[in-house]
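Render this sequence as a predicted structure.
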Amino acid sequence: MGSYVTAIPAASSDIAATHFARRLTVETDCADVADAMRNDIQDFVLLHVVGTKESYGKRHVPGAIHLPHREITAERMTEWSPETLFVTYCAGPHCNGADQAALKLARLGRPVKIMIGGITGWADEGFHFTTGEQPGNFNASQGEQRSARP
Protein backbone atom coordinates (compact mmCIF):
# COMPACT_ATOMS: atom_id res chain seq x y z
CA MET A 1 0.00 0.00 0.00
CA GLY A 2 1.36 3.39 -1.01
CA SER A 3 1.10 6.77 0.65
CA TYR A 4 -1.64 9.32 0.30
CA VAL A 5 0.78 11.18 -1.95
CA THR A 6 0.81 8.39 -4.54
CA ALA A 7 -2.75 7.10 -4.01
CA ILE A 8 -3.83 9.29 -6.91
CA PRO A 9 -1.33 9.02 -9.75
CA ALA A 10 0.47 12.16 -10.92
CA ALA A 11 -0.77 13.81 -14.08
CA SER A 12 1.04 13.24 -17.33
CA SER A 13 3.78 15.73 -18.16
CA ASP A 14 1.57 17.33 -20.81
CA ILE A 15 -1.31 17.85 -18.39
CA ALA A 16 1.04 19.15 -15.67
CA ALA A 17 2.74 21.57 -18.08
CA THR A 18 -0.61 22.95 -19.22
CA HIS A 19 -1.82 23.30 -15.63
CA PHE A 20 1.26 25.15 -14.37
CA ALA A 21 1.47 27.37 -17.44
CA ARG A 22 -2.14 28.43 -16.86
CA ARG A 23 -1.49 29.16 -13.19
CA LEU A 24 1.40 31.42 -14.11
CA THR A 25 -0.90 33.49 -16.31
CA VAL A 26 -2.88 34.53 -13.22
CA GLU A 27 -0.23 34.42 -10.47
CA THR A 28 3.10 35.94 -9.62
CA ASP A 29 5.03 35.76 -6.38
CA CYS A 30 6.59 38.15 -3.93
CA ALA A 31 10.13 37.49 -5.16
CA ASP A 32 9.24 38.34 -8.76
CA VAL A 33 7.44 41.54 -7.73
CA ALA A 34 10.38 42.59 -5.54
CA ASP A 35 12.85 41.80 -8.32
CA ALA A 36 10.92 43.97 -10.78
CA MET A 37 10.81 46.88 -8.35
CA ARG A 38 14.44 46.47 -7.29
CA ASN A 39 15.50 46.62 -10.94
CA ASP A 40 13.18 49.50 -11.91
CA ILE A 41 11.17 47.36 -14.34
CA GLN A 42 7.82 47.63 -12.64
CA ASP A 43 5.64 47.15 -15.71
CA PHE A 44 2.49 46.63 -13.65
CA VAL A 45 0.42 48.44 -11.05
CA LEU A 46 0.57 46.85 -7.61
CA LEU A 47 -2.69 47.11 -5.69
CA HIS A 48 -3.12 46.67 -1.92
CA VAL A 49 -6.78 45.67 -2.04
CA VAL A 50 -7.80 45.18 1.59
CA GLY A 51 -8.06 47.09 4.82
CA THR A 52 -8.62 50.65 5.83
CA LYS A 53 -6.57 53.68 4.95
CA GLU A 54 -5.17 53.49 8.48
CA SER A 55 -4.06 49.86 8.18
CA TYR A 56 -2.48 50.60 4.79
CA GLY A 57 -0.64 53.52 6.40
CA LYS A 58 0.78 51.27 9.11
CA ARG A 59 2.29 48.74 6.68
CA HIS A 60 2.17 47.99 2.97
CA VAL A 61 4.39 46.76 0.18
CA PRO A 62 6.44 49.65 -1.21
CA GLY A 63 5.00 50.93 -4.45
CA ALA A 64 1.51 49.57 -3.79
CA ILE A 65 -1.54 51.74 -4.29
CA HIS A 66 -4.33 51.30 -1.75
CA LEU A 67 -7.49 50.42 -3.66
CA PRO A 68 -9.81 48.19 -1.65
CA HIS A 69 -11.56 45.60 -3.81
CA ARG A 70 -14.93 47.06 -2.87
CA GLU A 71 -13.90 50.32 -4.57
CA ILE A 72 -12.86 48.78 -7.89
CA THR A 73 -15.29 50.03 -10.52
CA ALA A 74 -15.14 50.73 -14.24
CA GLU A 75 -15.13 54.46 -13.47
CA ARG A 76 -12.28 54.17 -10.96
CA MET A 77 -10.13 52.14 -13.34
CA THR A 78 -10.23 54.77 -16.11
CA GLU A 79 -7.15 56.26 -14.42
CA TRP A 80 -5.09 53.55 -16.16
CA SER A 81 -4.91 52.47 -19.79
CA PRO A 82 -6.85 49.32 -20.68
CA GLU A 83 -3.60 47.39 -21.26
CA THR A 84 -2.26 48.04 -17.75
CA LEU A 85 -1.44 44.85 -15.87
CA PHE A 86 -2.65 44.92 -12.28
CA VAL A 87 -1.13 42.78 -9.54
CA THR A 88 -3.35 42.42 -6.51
CA TYR A 89 -2.41 41.34 -3.02
CA CYS A 90 -4.10 41.04 0.34
CA ALA A 91 -3.19 39.93 3.86
CA GLY A 92 -2.06 36.44 2.88
CA PRO A 93 -3.19 32.89 2.22
CA HIS A 94 -6.01 33.24 4.75
CA CYS A 95 -7.52 36.20 2.86
CA ASN A 96 -9.45 36.23 -0.42
CA GLY A 97 -9.37 39.97 -1.04
CA ALA A 98 -6.80 39.60 -3.82
CA ASP A 99 -9.06 37.03 -5.52
CA GLN A 100 -12.08 39.31 -5.19
CA ALA A 101 -10.15 42.23 -6.67
CA ALA A 102 -8.72 40.09 -9.46
CA LEU A 103 -12.18 38.81 -10.33
CA LYS A 104 -13.57 42.35 -10.51
CA LEU A 105 -10.66 43.50 -12.68
CA ALA A 106 -11.01 40.51 -15.00
CA ARG A 107 -14.73 41.13 -15.37
CA LEU A 108 -13.86 44.71 -16.32
CA GLY A 109 -11.62 43.33 -19.07
CA ARG A 110 -8.39 44.27 -17.27
CA PRO A 111 -5.22 42.14 -17.28
CA VAL A 112 -4.61 40.92 -13.74
CA LYS A 113 -2.46 38.61 -11.64
CA ILE A 114 -2.44 37.87 -7.93
CA MET A 115 0.73 38.15 -5.88
CA ILE A 116 0.48 34.87 -4.02
CA GLY A 117 1.37 35.04 -0.35
CA GLY A 118 0.30 38.65 0.05
CA ILE A 119 1.59 40.53 3.08
CA THR A 120 2.38 37.26 4.86
CA GLY A 121 4.47 36.04 1.93
CA TRP A 122 6.23 39.40 1.62
CA ALA A 123 7.21 39.24 5.29
CA ASP A 124 8.27 35.59 5.00
CA GLU A 125 10.59 36.52 2.14
CA GLY A 126 12.23 39.14 4.38
CA PHE A 127 11.26 42.10 2.20
CA HIS A 128 10.68 45.44 3.87
CA PHE A 129 7.42 47.31 4.17
CA THR A 130 6.76 50.99 4.00
CA THR A 131 4.39 53.18 5.99
CA GLY A 132 2.28 56.23 5.34
CA GLU A 133 -0.47 57.22 2.98
CA GLN A 134 1.76 57.23 -0.13
CA PRO A 135 2.83 54.10 -2.03
CA GLY A 136 6.51 54.64 -1.35
CA ASN A 137 9.42 53.22 -3.32
CA PHE A 138 11.04 49.80 -2.95
CA ASN A 139 14.57 51.10 -3.48
CA ALA A 140 14.25 54.11 -1.16
CA SER A 141 15.31 52.17 1.92
CA GLN A 142 16.90 49.15 0.28
CA GLY A 143 19.71 50.89 -1.54
CA GLU A 144 20.43 50.12 -5.14
CA GLN A 145 21.04 46.38 -4.96
CA ARG A 146 20.29 44.84 -8.32
CA SER A 147 19.66 41.18 -8.95
CA ALA A 148 21.68 39.09 -11.29
CA ARG A 149 18.52 37.51 -12.62
CA PRO A 150 18.56 36.86 -16.38
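Summary. The chain is about 35% helix and 10% strand. The beta strands are 27-29, 45-48, 65-66, 86-89, 112-116.
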